[in-house]
Amino acid sequence: MLFHISGVFILSVGDFGKHIAMVRNLMMSRLDELLKEFDLTGSQYAVIKHIAEGRADTLAKLCELLQYDKGAMSRILSRMEDKSLIIRKPCPDDGRAFRLKLTPRGKELFPQTTPKVNALFEQALAEFSAKEKEAFFSMLERCRSNLS
């Protein structure tokens, strides 16, 4: 349901969450479908991307960046280890933590998959002008910031 307030249409609170969840679920479903040929899921791609770009090298940092709980992320990492995409090495300064590194196979997959993932993102934003894209991402960042 849309409400018109001061020349602006807004969604009801329930619709806001529903639309965000629908877009997220559809995006993850399409990513999973797109990455099947590489034996990857969208979540696994996100892990590879963050490790490859040097943004994360621990379970805790990945949880923070990707908004997963530690149990779910641990299961993702275990499946990735089984696929020989990552290796976990004990942190020298913290015996409870592990440093994550991409295996040669994980490093090889990142540049192969990134163009396909980026094409999907471009498809999702295809009818947005540059100004609309900028405003959209700015608003999403503000929502995230408001909730942090």
Automatic annotation (TrEMBL):
Name of the featured protein: HTH marR-type domain-containing protein
SMART domains: HTH_MARR (SM00347)
InterPro entries attached to this UniProt entry: HTH_MarR-typ, MarR/SlyA-like, Tscrpt_reg_MarR-type_CS, WH-like_DNA-bd_sf, WH_DNA-bd_sf
Occurrences of domain HTH marR-type (ranges): 1-145
UniProt GO MF annotations: DNA binding; DNA-binding transcription factor activity
Keyword DNA-binding: yes
Keyword terms: DNA-binding, Transcription, Transcription regulation
GO annotation terms (biological process): response to stress
Keyword Cell membrane part of the UniProt annotation: no
